[in-house]
Amino acid sequence: MSQIEFINITKQYGNFKALDNISFTINNGEFIFLVGPSGAGKSTIIKLLIREELSDAGEILFNGKNIKEFTQKEMPDLRRKIGVVFQDFKLLNSKNVFENVSIALEVVNSSETEIKSIVPNVLNLVGLTDKILSFPKQLSGGERQRLCIARALAHEPDVLIADEATGNIDPDASQEILDLLGKINSLGTTVIMATHDERMVDQMKKRVLRLDKGSIISDKKGGKYRE
Amino acid sequence: MTSTFLLLGVFINIVVFSQTALKYLENQAQITIFFKDEFTEEKIKTYQSELHNDPRIMDVSYVSKEDALRIFREMNKDEPILLENISASVLPASLEVKTKDITQLKNISEEFIQKEGVEDVQFFEDVIQRFSVWSRTVYIIGFILVLVFLIVSYSVVVSTIRTSINNRGEELSIMKLVGASDEYVKKPFIYQGVFFGVLSSFIASIIVFLLDLTADKLKIFSDGLSLGFIPGFFISPLIFSLILCFVLILSGFLLGLLGSTTAIKKYLQS
User: Fold this and answer.
1) Counting runs of H as helices and runs of E as strands, what totals does chain B give?
2) CB within 8 A of A213, min separation 6: which ones?
3) In what order do the strands lie in the sheet with A215-220?
4) Which end of chain B is more exposed for a tag (fewer CB within 10 A), N or C?
5) Cβ-nearest to B179 among A79, A91, A92
6) Domain encompassing residue B93
7) H or E, element range at B260
8) Does residue A31 contact residue A178 with C-beta atoms inside 8 Å?
9) With the C-alpha atoms ordered B124, B130, B133, B136, is the resulting torsion angle positive or negative?
């Protein structure tokens, strides 16, 4: 069974068709790039997957369950299984690095012992141990994005989505993020990365799902940005 | 919000005080039936026992000519010239009648004015009726104001929590994105609303209690306070004040709970 299945999905905003009857599957532990020009439908796929929005037609299955069937009470559970890293970070500037990660655990009522054990581990994984008491504004763009990844990893999600995660950071920091995502993927987490960064996609030689005007125009394993 | 609860407490007090004052007036001698000199005490007492058996009557007492003289002397003790030529024979005997309901005053008065031996019937119709109208008006206005203040308090809680939600909007959306349940997001706002409501009403309660304590020390209501909706029931001002404080704090708790729940529910639905 595939981990994620998009079956004949259509999503329309007014007269604009963001996704037009697309179907694809993602297996457990895959690394997949979503590429294409702005407005191609990459972000819409992510919004539908975390149920920030609902599709107009078709079904999205996550571990075999239709996402539309998740009740309001089950939604937090879905969001814990799918970690998201955003281009604009979405960090709490009034909280330090440790607190920004621990909030993800506090909201699911994790014990203090669990928090004290998990947070240093994920910060170590993303290389932010020495910045544990810093505030987001004291971090570089790359460090902020690594902090976002750490927060997303706190729940040990099945899937990690990076929505233009390297869009706001310099090339060196982007490379660090890409390496980090590769490392996370090698530990068994499915990674879905929406990006415009051609160099990054070509370098990784992973599955590339290319979109244009809401349709899939190619889906290749070990593909390149422009193939 | 404290001032809203304070006004609420003060208005409830005013309503109860005016009801008590009305009951006090009602309990005073309401009708005085004066008898002609030739009408004997025996015959007057027949009327008295008739009135005793009348279900409309609360109390009836006989005032003899001698009693009337004693009352007259007491009332005019500072005016010796007035007392010089007065004797019991010139003062009429009377019956003082209290009714259970002041609306019966006129009927009873009209019945007695036509009876044999009755010289005159007096009752303070205007004063009692006017006070009754005033007291009822206070009761109605007070009731409306209490409702208005409750609505105002509710709105204050809702807008305070909304402001608080707006200030923490980004934090809340991030919490939701990292998997916070609705319950988790709701809790701090509900605690805040309840705390806000209880604290405001508690401060107001202390002030109301101090006011009532002052009224109690001054012995303004020595017989206790009358609750308009429970006829014949009087309660000690301090016990009334404690109950009122409890009601105010409970209202604060409930308004805080209801207001914050509504505000956060709207946010989560949006």
Assistant:
1) 9, 6
2) A17, A20, A39, A40, A41
3) A82-86, A159-163, A190-195, A31-35, A207-212, A215-220
4) C
5) A79
6) 30-123
7) helix B237-269
8) no
9) negative
The tens digit of pLDDT for each residue in B23-48 reads 777 666 578 888 888 888 888 888 88
Q: Are residues B142 and B240 in the same domain?
A: yes
- Which CATH number covers residue B106? 3.30.70.3040
- In 3D space, the residue among A195, A221, A196 whose CA is nearest the CA of residue A208 turns out to be A221
Tell whether B145 and B251 lie within a shared domain. yes
A80 chain-B contacts, CB cut-off 8 A = 178-179
Distance CA B159, CA B138 (A): 31
* Residues B144 and B233 both lie in one domain: yes
A-chain CB neighbours of B184 within 8 Å are 76, 107-109
Say if residue B104 is in the same domain as residue B163. Answer: no
Cα gap B257→B140, rounded to integer Å: 28
**Residue-wise pLDDT tens digits, A139-176:** 988 899 899 999 988 888 999 999 888 877 788 888 88
Which of A46, A51, A79 to substitute to test the interface with B, most B CBs within 10 Å? Answer: A79
Nearest to A84 among B175, B177, B180 (CB): B177
Q: What is the ipTM of this complex?
A: 0.71
Total structural domains within chain B: 2
B73 with B165, same domain: the answer is no
Where does a domain end: B106, B123, B140?
B123
A90 in contact with B at a CB cutoff of 8 Å?
Answer: yes
